[in-house]
Amino acid sequence: MVKKKMLKALNQQINAEMYSSYLYLSMESYFQSISLAGFANWMRGQVQEELMHSMKFYDFVVERGGRVTLDAIARPESSWDSPLDAFKAILKHEQHVTALINDLVDLAIDERDHATNIFLQWFVSEQVEEEASVGAIVDRLELIKDTPSGLFMLDAELAKRVFTPAAE
């Protein structure tokens, strides 16, 4: 059975993961509105990935005998000044999520909740990958600057992304 303090934190993380999917869905809409379908496709993959993350947390709470309690999901931003600004916002958001995961790990250690600590290690690794992936796109957008041909080339590349659920 998961302890009360850990249960509350895991439920908050479910909300944070749901917010992440909501934010990426808002960004998908933004990219659709400026005719960057490849960027929108990349965001759709992120929406699916974040929903998968929230369900991993949900299933873990249930498996540990806890009760999932859902709170309202905050409204995300809906527009950005440029694709670069959107991806900088994503990087900042992913760094925030990394901090949340790290806080959960610290709590699991403090609570001597070894099962939760082991479960969270997958997310620790996932966040390293998330930050690296988004950081690489930010770097490329900074190189492109205001070059339309570069933006369209990156858009074509991001259009090739296919969401593949992570293996357990």
Description of the molecule:
- It is elongated, with a radius of gyration of 17 Å.
- The longest helix is centred in the last third of the chain and has 31 residues.
- It is built from five helices and no strands.
- The two termini are 22 Å apart.
- It has one domain: Ferritin, core subunit, four-helix bundle (Ferritin).
- The mean pLDDT is 96.
- The chain has 168 residues and is mainly α.
Question: What's the topology here?
Answer:
Layout: H1 4-33, H2 37-63, H3 83-110, H4 114-144, H5 148-158
Gyration radius (Cα, Å) is 17 Å
The SSE string, one letter per element, is: HHHHH
CATH structural class: Mainly Alpha
The overall number of domains is 1
Beta-strand content estimate: under 5%
CATH topology, by name, is Ferritin
* Uncertain residue segments: none
Q: What would you call the quaternary organization?
A: single chain
DSSP, total strands: 0
Major sheet size, sense and barrel closure: none
Instruction: Please name the CATH architecture.
Output: Up-down Bundle
- Share of helix, binned: over 70%
CATH superfamily: Ferritin, core subunit, four-helix bundle
Structural class: mainly alpha
Shape: elongated
Cα end-to-end separation: 22 Å
Mean pLDDT across residues: 96
Number of H/I helices: 5
